[in-house]
What we know:
Strand content: 15-25%
Distance between the termini: 21 Å
Amino acid sequence: xxxxxxxxxxxxxxxxxxxxxxxxxxxxxxxxxxxxxxxxxxxxxxxxxxxxxxxxxxxxxxxxxxxxxxxxxxxxxxxxxxxxxxxxxxxxxxxxxxxxxxxxxxxxxxxxxxxxxxxxxxxxxxxxxxxxxxxxxxxxxxxxxxxxxxxxxxxxxxxxxxxxxxxxxxxxxxxxxxxxxxxxxxxxxxxxxxxxxxxxxxxxxxxxxxxxxxxxxxxxxxxxxxxxxxxxxxxxxxxxxxxxxxxxxxxxxxxxxxxxxxxxxxxxxxxxxxxxxxxxxxxxxxxxxxxxxxxxxxxxxxxxxxxxxxxxxxxxxxxxxxxxxxxxxxxxxxxxxxxxxxxxxxxxxxxxxxxxxxxxxxxxxxxxxxxxxxxxxxxxxxxxxxxxxxxxxxxxxxxxxxxxxxxxxxxxxxxxxxxxxxxxxxxxxxxxxxxxxxxxxxxxxxxxxxxxxxxxxxxxxxxxxxxxxxxxxxxxxxxxxxxxxxxxxxxxxxxxxxxxxxxxxxxxxxxxxxxxxxxxxxxxxxxxxxxxxxxxxxxxxxxxxxxxxxxxxxxxxxxxxxxxxxxxxxx
Length: 571
């Protein structure tokens, strides 16, 4: 969860770059000094004075991968006078990635599915739902919705004939995550997009999908000293939140009442307690007196600067857990790196739980390939653009990156924008052998479903390094960023605003500085607070020269993270 800090330059260093480059708030300018920015076709651009003055005449287009108009949308600015090939390349690189092969790419209307064969036709889609990018493959049917090749299993089938109840309102759903076969010719292209995909038939985990029962893991992990297990009392109803109580993570003194605690135990103890819990669950009403358990432990890891595959943690695979480590050696690591664009995983984490448990809605900055080995899980996902509707806790809060909204009983008076998510969620139902790719910044709410006959749920996460919100090195005076800044990069930039304020004048003043920045014509405080306001305004204006967008970014941080939250007394 802290890996992003290792690959992201400090906010103060980037802010200093902005100030030294002379980006004045009053001029409303921002810049990228990347000499190759123009070559990306506009997906990554320099923001110069000339571009700032012409921004009003540019049109902003929504563009989607070839999966449907609920998933993976990005924003692309269309400049006046651009011809069709230039527009096509800019849109394709924004959606498929800057290094993608854009030869043969076609653009289709997201509303009608018709191919767009002129620049004028593409521009018309700014007001008509956007475009879908097809990389030399046919357009998928029913492009207005998230559709799939192959059949989605229903939770009715999984639960043995009874609908497994959701821990959220079904009206949030807008479609199903696309399900592809591992041999689908478009798989690599879509995994290069910022879009969730379910992959079936990959055999990524080899024999582990068949072998890794609780009994097998107990027999072959018995010599491992301890595993980290979340333990939740019956009153939490299976809710497993994350609480970071490490030093310095709660500098504002928010009062926290955790719904679970993290404990250490051997796998044999976890298995025994899980068996007791299953027995109680089989007796009507007995579960009310039982704790819930969720094992979450990293088995493999590598440092950010280290190359190659992740390595066994500690003595795992050498003096203990040898058989399980040998199973992991047989995973399809080369296939995984290939479909993930040549990237190697940074960490592999084991999850073991029981039906009824769930992880509340949160996002991760890392790229995540989620492999289901045994049992069933259901995942609800939301695009990073819905940041403001999900009200994440502040950066300097122990529940950072988790939604403040209770999905089972949302308080719409406290969190009014949550209602905007009706019909915007995507659902993925995962069974043994399935893989779900969760891109960085995508919100996900994960439930463990009835999984007869063993009622065991076993999964693996393959984590990939987190991106930054910009490219380049501020110390060298050469950085660039996507324009417009969107998706996970926009979220990371918003996080950096809070981090910068905390570095300048302390985390307890984040909200106060944000409110001053939202009133640019108001009085500026004296002393360190005033200096922080000026520096933050310059920093944000560098990246968002348009005043309306700039105020929107600041308001989303202020209202989305701090609405109704009182430092030192709330939380």
